[in-house]
Amino acid sequence: MSVPVQVPFIDLKQRYQEEKTELLACVERVLEQGHFVLTQEVNEFEQQAARYVGARHCVSLNSGTDALMMALWALGIGKGDEVITTPVSFVASTGSIVHVGATPVYADVRDDQNIDPAEIVKKITPRTKAILPVHWTGRIADMNAIMDIARKHKLIVIEDAAQSMGAYYHGKHGGSFGHAAAFSAHPLKNLNALGDGGFLVTDDDEVARKVRLYRTHGLQDRDTCVLYGVNSRLDSLNAEVLKYRLSRLDNIVARRRRNANLYRGLIKPGPIYIPEDKPHEQNSFVMFITQANDRDRLKAYLAERGIESLVYYGTALHLHKAAERLGYKRGDFPVAEKQCDRVLALPHHQHLTEDQIGLVADAVNKFYGG
Ligand SMILES: Cc1ncc(COP(=O)(O)O)c(C=O)c1O
């Protein structure tokens, strides 16, 4: 018999209720003016997002995955090039490298699940062209160290900032460190569209120019195709929604941080590890990740009490079937592998109540006999 859900992992219906009037007004505005592609709403969203992140350009696209691929492509990365990246991410971080014809080379992660700069250095070869760090769960990777390595070895840095809207490192927003960064506006992100969406930011005029062409078939104007591109445009409806949601992002992130701190205060450390936030890290908490002893039994125990949790993700990227061609094996990245065996994301969103957080923390503590 299934137990009624007491604490949902995420609750997008509540988000709709909170924003209903404004979201419907966005829809109405766009429908009434009757234009849906590359309109003023799109330009305005791009200007506002660029300002928010602290970049010269923002080019909106169909997804974060497209933003990653287009960043790689526009920066000239392709066949014969190696790109150093992390085995702890969503598959798109690696997939984008493969799709431009380059080779992903993994470097192991730190305790906080972000790529370890000391491991990056060990992986540099004459073929290395770029580093692609991921700001996993909204915690910015150690960008000072990564940018130092990049400068020393003349490497390009493309940030996978898919999860980092609202996240800062030494006071600087995620996505503003490297040559280009890719953001996702997938429904599970803090700044989320009504469906898929994404954007690329860069300070590089030429990268922005190329990506603007590439996202719309390489058309310079209606009759002039200067290269063969794709169709990857953020539609006007989502641009209008994202403009509105960008104005609320700080509020959403603040509520998520408050909830994360409540969890931290209530869950007894020991058998369950919650990576700390260092003073220079302002995590945006797209997820609330723990590393738990006896993870699968804990997950089942929570489910029996109506608490949803998710293994995010249980397979390190080098161990997927698709990665067989890269020639890695279990044991190659021991920190990442251990984390994948232990990782558990607890329910986490801005609508969680203190009672719900208390319920989850109590259940976790009880499971471990506390
Ligand atoms: C770390 C990371 N990279 C890339 C992506 C891909 O973004 P999208 O789903 O918008 O294509 C995601 C989104 O899930 C992600 O979390």
Structure, described:
This protein has eleven helices and 15 strands. Helix content is 39%, strand content 15%. With 370 residues, it is of the alpha/beta class. Helix 1 packs antiparallel against helix 8. The strands form four sheets. A seven-stranded mixed sheet has the order 1-9-8-5-4-2-3, sandwiched between helices. A three-stranded antiparallel sheet has the order 7-6-13, with no helix packed on it. It has a three-stranded antiparallel sheet with strand order 12-14-15. The structure holds pyridoxal-5'-phosphate. Pyridoxal-5'-phosphate binds next to helix 3 and helix 4. Pyridoxal-5'-phosphate (PLP) binds next to helix 3 and helix 4.
Concise synopsis of the structure shown:
This protein is an alpha/beta fold and 370 residues long. Helices cover 39% and strands 15% of the residues.
Helix and strand topology:
Elements: H1 12-33, H2 40-53, E1 57-61, H3 64-74, E2 82-85, H4 92-99, E3 103-106, H5 117-122, E4 128-132, H6 143-153, E5 156-160, E6 168-169, E7 172-173, E8 180-184, E9 198-202, H7 205-214, E10 219-221, E11 224-225, H8 236-266, E12 272-273, E13 281-282, E14 288-292, H9 295-304, H10 334-342, E15 343-346, H11 354-367
Parallel strand pairs: 2-3, 2-4, 4-5, 5-8
Antiparallel strand pairs: 1-9, 6-7, 6-13, 8-9, 10-11, 12-14, 14-15
Bound molecules: pyridoxal-5'-phosphate.
